[in-house]
Amino acid sequence: MKRFFQFFMLSAAGICFGQSISDYGLIHIPSKFKDFKDNQYELNDLLASKLTEKKYIIVNNNSLENDPCQVLNAEVKNTSNMLTNRLKIEFKDCKNVTIATFEGKSMIKDFEEGMQDALLKALKNVGSPKEIPTQQPQKNIATSAEIQATEKENSAKNNPAPLESKTVAKAEIYSNGALSLNKMVISDHQFILANPNLSVPYAIFKATSKKEVYQVQLDNGSTTLGYLEDGKIVIDMPTADGNFKKEVFIRK
Fold it and tell me: How distant, in Å, are the alpha carbons of 41, 136, 143, 173 from that of 46?
């Protein structure tokens, strides 16, 4: 009797938790992931393309209304840090239960290339569906662009665009003559200088006990000192011979 009970419990667990993405053939990809702008870095299109290559069918909201529990909902989350582009792909069923999660990371510094590389690495672990889904009626199948157009139209109807603010905050840009960087304040005791085209900051400034003097972590991992002087940002840049040279950034 005891063995029968154990067997029953193991069987029940397999039924409850045995589902995987390969048990589904239909995937819904939203026009906008929560952590990204509309099709930012072309992640929506790339995800749709690669899942289609694996024999999944990408569907629009019409299919969700007809039979939502036959469809998995995809979501891409940004889990990056200052040194690495990272993301996580989640697939949830109609009850919002996570069926599968795949993570990918890339050391490529450029945001677009790095995020796309991380997505491709995450998708390497996604298998094809166990049963190739039967082709749905054409009205229920949509490209990523069609999904975006439909959902944008619905969003525009339900959420009218707010009036544009008359005052627009401008980023503080500093230049040393050869390089232009954005200054971004993280807190009262920390700010960064960053190239808008790269994911790794050029320099991270952390306040010391002395006013307007900072410990600076450079993009190559080395540390040095920096300070403010007459509105300028100055970094003591280490040189190959063990000395330092003064690098001055002036606000543009």
Answer: 9, 22, 11, 33
